[in-house]
From TrEMBL:
<dbReference type="Pfam" id="PF13683">
    <property type="entry name" value="rve_3"/>
</dbReference>
<dbReference type="GO" id="GO:0015074">
    <property type="term" value="P:DNA integration"/>
</dbReference>
<dbReference type="InterPro" id="IPR036397">
    <property type="entry name" value="RNaseH_sf"/>
</dbReference>
<dbReference type="InterPro" id="IPR001584">
    <property type="entry name" value="Integrase_cat-core"/>
</dbReference>
<protein>
    <submittedName>
        <fullName>IS3 family transposase</fullName>
    </submittedName>
</protein>
<dbReference type="GO" id="GO:0003676">
    <property type="term" value="F:nucleic acid binding"/>
</dbReference>
<dbReference type="InterPro" id="IPR048020">
    <property type="entry name" value="Transpos_IS3"/>
</dbReference>
<feature type="domain" description="Integrase catalytic">
    <location>
        <begin position="108"/>
        <end position="257"/>
    </location>
</feature>
<dbReference type="Pfam" id="PF13276">
    <property type="entry name" value="HTH_21"/>
</dbReference>
<dbReference type="InterPro" id="IPR012337">
    <property type="entry name" value="RNaseH-like_sf"/>
</dbReference>
<dbReference type="InterPro" id="IPR025948">
    <property type="entry name" value="HTH-like_dom"/>
</dbReference>
Length: 257
């Protein structure tokens, strides 16, 4: 039994009417220890308070990412101490369902070699509280992992996909490859002709192999886990504003592993 545990037992015995001398003798502790105040709880209290506040703000972040935010607030905490305080505070991230992993030896076609070498895009679906559907087109630079755009609408057809991509090309320059699955919007004649006119090469993944578009799939998982599942949109207009704020936070503030 630790010294602190024995002191607690001695204090309990004293509260039940046993003299200090007798209680300390039975528990083999010094009487002066009864009046000692632990310093670590006082030192750790501000850190735990900041952890609880940040955990409430970012419920899907674990101790590693919360530690980055603590450093930004001027609270320099070591990795082991951060993990200890995280456990003591009873904080934890709800576990996600484990997914079967694909062997790492399998390579994707057209690996990114630099900024603007490969853009990947896909759709994510959700709904608002008023029943409006949300269809989100996400575009990610596979080399920098930056989310270039999230277009939110009720319906997004090939013409709107072209509009979003054209705007990004005018702002950031054209990529060499565009990677996507075989959805009807991505294999439409209109979009493929636009890609030819812009001298862009399209890379369509093989059916049944979503890992070939793994960068965008990974981003979409974070997007759903940290934004769509955490927010309750009243309407589509509110969803556009909140999702764009989250995209900026993801690119500029969120710690990345």
């Amino acid at each position: 039994m630790s010294v602190q545990a024995r002191l607690e037992q001695a204090r309990y015995a004293i509260s039940r009417g046993v003299s200090q001398r007798r209680a300390c003798t039975l528990m083999d502790v010094s009487r002066s220890g009864l009046y000692y105040t632990l310093r670590m709880p006082v030192k750790d209290a501000p850190v735990i308070g900041a952890m609880q506040r940040l955990s409430g703000q970012y419920p899907r972040f674990g101790s590693r990412r919360i530690r980055v935010f603590l450093g930004r607030e001027g609270l320099q905490v070591g990795q082991e101490r951060c993990s200890r305080l995280w456990r003591e505070a009873g904080l934890q991230v709800p576990a996600k369902r484990k997914r079967r992993r694909v062997a790492g030896s399998q390579s994707r076609p057209c690996e990114p070699t630099g900024r603007n070498s490969v853009w990947s895009y896909d759709f994510v679906y959700d709904a608002c509280a008023n029943g409006q559907t949300l269809k989100c087109l996400t575009v990610v630079d596979e080399y920098t992992r930056e989310c270039l755009a999230i277009d939110v609408a009720g319906s997004i057809r090939a013409s709107r996909v072209i509009e979003v991509l054209s705007r990004l090309v005018s702002l950031r320059g054209a990529p060499r490859y565009l990677r996507s699955d075989n959805g009807p919007e991505f294999v439409s004649t209109q979009l493929l002709q636009w890609a030819v006119d812009e001298k862009l090469e399209t890379v369509l993944i093989e059916p049944g192999k979503p890992w070939q578009n793994g960068t965008n799939e990974s981003f979409n998982g974070k997007f759903r886990d940290e934004c769509l599942s955490m927010e309750w949109f009243r309407n589509r207009l509110e969803a556009r504003v909140i999702i764009e704020d989250w995209r900026r936070h993801y690119n500029e503030i969120r710690p990345h592993s």
